[in-house]
Amino acid sequence: MRAKIVYFALAAVLVVYFVLVGSRGVMLIQQGTAVTIAFGVSVLVLPFIGAWFLYQTTKFARDANRLARELEAEGGLPVDELVRTPSGRIDRDSADAVFAKRKAETEDAPSDWRTWFRLAVAYHDARDTPRARKAMQRAIALHDRKPVRAEAA
What we know:
Blueprint lengths: L1 H30 L2 H41 L17 H17 L4 H13 L3 H15 L10
Organism: Streptomyces telluris
InterPro entries: TPR-like_helical_dom_sf
Keywords: Membrane, Transmembrane, Transmembrane helix
């Protein structure tokens, strides 16, 4: 719950920032010279890019949470079997062992979104965020029956 509050607080701050930057862009365009119009248009592009990124990130998080709830209802969420250091961090060797198991499961059932979801969690535990995101995107696409690119796990 705390993560959601932080996310929405940061999203609200970003929206305020987008509005402020957008207003500056409009003010520059209203100056009417070629240079200020060019700068104004350039500044206006930034809030649109930021809004698109915020939308995509929020959509991804909602979709991943939807899959997590469905998998939890089925009793298929991965069990936390990771060894942790005294400080609470995940032991690298433990994460690698779980990852190898999840990768093998995914290779055995490459069209099952559940295995890709569990693989994404294993990537995340192994601190490989880019691959975790790609695996989760693939799980979402398979769940929603959208076309997926042929990539190796």
